[in-house]
Design a protein that fits this description.
It comes from Streptomyces albogriseolus. This is AcrR family transcriptional regulator. The relative contact order is 0.11. Helix 4 crosses helix 6 and helix 5 runs antiparallel to helix 8. This protein has about 230 residues and is mostly helical. It is about 65% helix and about 0% strand. The chain is elongated.
């Protein structure tokens, strides 16, 4: 089948866009997000400076694309673990998802830094990144929701002064779950990302040596926080 000019142009645009993002990721690893420059990327790729703006109108547009790609890649890893662990005990599924997130972060430290590290000066992520950013959280919530449906969730308590906020959180983020579960879900999501960040960014150096065992133990505690039995518990 002969390619149409339109199809060839679309393929060329896809290939050039991918090359731009790949070079930008390389620069992130070497220089950090704050130093990302469209002109420098164009120069390395042999493009005219004016040409790259047809693909990404600004540095912020390129950053947004990289951030969305990173969130989606991380989300895909979490969702793959969720699917692969179907039928296992809730605590085992929880650990599988958490380990998938950690594994991705250790394999992609610079992309993890882009989405969960220090904010890039002068840049604010647009609302379009929210769906991709939510994928890990929703994978974890799916484990909790399935446990609740199976009658295997011990609903945590919530103090009286947090009840209204818990109800709001539940309506916004965890429909179908008791409101008291919502603050716990938000808290453990933040704790999981912080735990992984400590490892990725080197804060555990000379502090935690057996990191696999430490991670499994810690995410077991996070499971208990949301009312799940940790992996291996009866």
């Amino acid at each position: 089948m002969t390619s149409t000019p339109h199809g060839a142009r679309a393929r060329a645009r896809t290939e050039i866009t991918a090359a731009i993002k790949e070079e930008a990721r390389r620069r992130l690893a070497e220089q950090g997000a704050a130093e990302l420059s469209l002109r420098a990327v164009a120069r390395t790729l042999g493009m005219a400076s004016s040409a790259i703006y047809r693909y990404f109108p600004s540095r912020d547009d390129l950053l947004t694309a990289l951030i969305t790609d990173a969130y989606d890649s991380l989300g895909e890893a979490a969702e793959a673990a969720l699917k692969a662990s179907a039928g296992a005990a809730p605590g085992e599924r929880w650990t599988a998802v958490c380990e998938a997130v950690r594994g991705w972060a250790l394999a992609h430290p610079h992309e993890y830094a882009l989405i969960y590290g220090s904010p890039v000066p002068g840049y604010a992520a647009p609302a379009t990144t929210v769906p991709a950013a939510s994928r890990v959280g929703f994978a974890l919530i799916d484990v909790v929701r399935d446990a609740h449906r199976a009658g295997e969730l011990d609903v945590p308590s919530v103090p009286a002064d947090l009840e209204a906020e818990a109800a709001r959180m539940a309506a916004d983020f965890v429909p179908g779950l008791p409101p008291a579960v919502a603050p716990a879900c938000v808290a453990v999501w933040a704790q999981l990302l912080g735990l992984i960040g400590f490892e990725v960014f080197g804060q555990f150096t000379r502090i935690v040596e057996e990191r696999d065992a430490f991670f499994r133990h810690t995410v077991g505690g996070l499971a208990r926080t949301v009312g799940l039995r940790p992996a291996g518990a009866s």
